[in-house]
Specification:
Elements: H1 2-16, H2 21-33, H3 35-69, H4 71-91
């Protein structure tokens, strides 16, 4: 377990600490006002990220529950849509075949 935790920290920390505007804000506050200000700024950033993660997880859970409870209707509507698309595809006339154009080597780089 300790090995997995160490590996997770080794891999996860560089990903989580990627440079960005918030990282530079914390760095600037640390250099300008001292390590306590930097620590408080970092804790504020971590709290905000945790709130965003919790809201995202809650939202995914709600959407998943709705989709699971309505899966018959969603499946029925999806099946009807596939049948309609298939019938429209079968009933349409195929486009006429055109002969391939000869390549003009002087204009190969231009858009058609």
């Amino acid at each position: 377990m300790a090995r997995a935790l160490a590996l997770g920290l080794l891999v996860g920390f560089p990903i989580a600490a990627s440079p960005g505007p918030i990282s530079f804000l914390v760095l600037r506050r640390t250099l300008a006002r001292g390590w306590r200000s930097g620590l408080v700024s970092g804790l504020g950033v971590a709290t905000g990220d945790a709130i965003y993660a919790a809201l995202a997880a809650f939202g995914v859970a709600v959407v998943t529950n709705v989709l699971i409870s309505q899966r018959r209707w969603i499946g029925l509507l999806g099946g009807i849509a596939l049948v309609v698309i298939g019938l429209r595809t079968i009933s349409q006339n195929p486009p006429p075949r055109s002969s391939p154009k000869r390549a003009d080597l002087r204009r190969w780089w231009r858009s058609p």
